[in-house]
User: Fold DJ-1/PfpI/YhbO family deglycase/protease from Halobacillus litoralis.
Amino acid sequence: MTAKKVLIVTGDAVEALEVYYPYFRCLEEGFDVDIAAPHKKKLNTVIHDFEDWETYTEKKGYMIDSNMTFEQVDPNDYDALIIPGGRAPEHIRMHDDLPGIVSHFFIADKPIAVMCHGSLVLTTIADVVEGRKMTAYHACRPEVESIGAEYMDEMNYVDDNLISGHAWPDLPSIMKEFVKQVKGTTVNS
Assistant:
């Protein structure tokens, strides 16, 4: 049996936990995982924490390798997609190849996990996200609503193949559902 293939799309300033946790979780399941970014390089991650501030704080995190560029991605080769948050989404969404990659997973009804600020990537593909329900970091609510999606004020939410989460503390629930969907054992509405 061929291993399932998962694509992670990100860039510099990705939230460390939101890229490392899904990456390692997918490897644990025996999935083949590629990390695509604007450039094939060591990516800088950031650590967002919820300290005694009205918003999150940011510190430099570990490095992680992207093993391919967005231009090299053929989304037909993948069974599922992960879009981590951090500050990377606000920048990578402007890359010419990314909207087509992400749209493919919505149109083909493949599992998609979107965490936190990862929802910003979806602002370039409003036509395929309109009418969907999802959650995201609360500061991203205006962008979620601007693309015609319904913002769900919950820590994680499943709308068929779209699995979304508020922030990195929600990764266990997000990844539990994501793995089930990639394996084909359940799809929740």
User: Anything to note?
Assistant: The helical segments are 16-28, 88-92, 98-107, 126-129, 141-146, 171-183.
